[in-house]
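Students often ask why we bother predicting the structure of a whole assembly rather than each chain alone. The short answer is interfaces. A chain on its own may look different once its partners are present, and contacts between molecules only exist in the joint model. In this exercise we take two input lines together and write out one structure for the complete complex. Read the inputs first and try to guess which parts will touch.
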Amino acid sequence: MKLIYYPGCTLKNQARNFDVSTVSSMGKLDVEVEELDRWNCCGTVHALDSDNVMNRVAPVTNLIRVKEAQAKTEGMASEFMTSCAMCYNTLKRANIDVRQRSDALETINNFLSLEKTKYEGDVEVLHLLEYLRDRVGFDKLAEKVTKPLKGLRVACYYGCLLVRPKEVAFDDVENPMIMENLITALGATPVPFSQKTECCGAYHTVGKPEIIAERTDKIMGSAYEEQADLVVVSCPLCAFNLDFRQDDAKRLNPDFNNLPVLYFTQLMAIAFGCDDSALRLDLHHVDPLPVLAAHGLV
Amino acid sequence: MIPTLRITTARAERDFVAKVEKISGQKLLACYQCGKCSAGCPMASHMDVLPNQIIRLAQLGMKEQLLAARSIWMCVSCMTCNSRCPKGIRIAEVIESLRMTALRDGERNDYLKIMELSPEARSELPPIATISAMRKLTS
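Now the answer. The structure tokens for the assembled complex follow.
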């Protein structure tokens, strides 16, 4: 199986661990991941002003690149996958928006008049979790596990972007379980987690890190109370806030306990027996090695 | 002499209300003030005007109070309010329309001054954080 893969900017920078673990674990599932040729920024946040056309240009350009890649490869579906929750959200919403607003799409196509391909709303945006559940299947995925994550207690954090707004959600808006089901297939134990869809504070990390400290204290504290060994995420911004802002959370609340934050793809890579180079555990702020070593996983 | 009270259908700041409704694509009068948006808002504790109050002020066209509120910059569009509103109002879109009204006025009164951050703070931030902050908080 071949699949077009859109990494996004942060997966090529601070979140290289997310990128390499995505590609390696997909290889173990016999899915040949092909990075999208000439991809550009997804747009990062979906502009909510209804008269906005300009901010749809970046995502639509990517959708054109997917069409071009698909045309070049025989048997390639008109869809692509991204593992970054924010890229998924922005690309998916832009796609829904231009499908509903033909005048906006026409404006964008006219603006992109140097492109040989026109966008006609004919590409599907998939998140990796969705792909794994619907195209691979968690039962098939479980068969590839060579190192079950036995005894590892995992809190699955969804944040905002995977389940809101409801037109982009691929699971229940209030109580999604897709990551828990994946983690279970890998042999780990998901813990109940009341804060799993609470916002991490997102981009306030730039100008108001004190807000992130408060959010991180609340979210990670809840995972700690459930005796989680670690928290898994699908968004590099959540990962940065919940991991790198733990020192701030500790300053805010002296009783705060550090907990490692991993991408769900890193747990897949461990369970599938990928090389250590596919994990890049050196890129974390709170070191996940002790807890993984305690479970005999590294 | 007894003062007279004049009742009129003309509303102050009618243009502002129309603009907010146009940019947000929402019907402000649909709101019946149940307060569910504010109850679930993760940023409520950092806001001076709560999300349900924002809708009320917007219905009344209270432009100055709204554009001066810290709240319109605190909302991070997490969409919790939108997904829970029993009237289907997209509150986050209304707040975005207020941010846009402030950012589109040509004054370049950006809420975030990224160059005021230290070079160390800037370099540790992932691009996903910097770009999204600038998209939301600068003109």
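Check your guess against this: Residues 53 and 292 of chain A are 46 Å apart (CA to CA).
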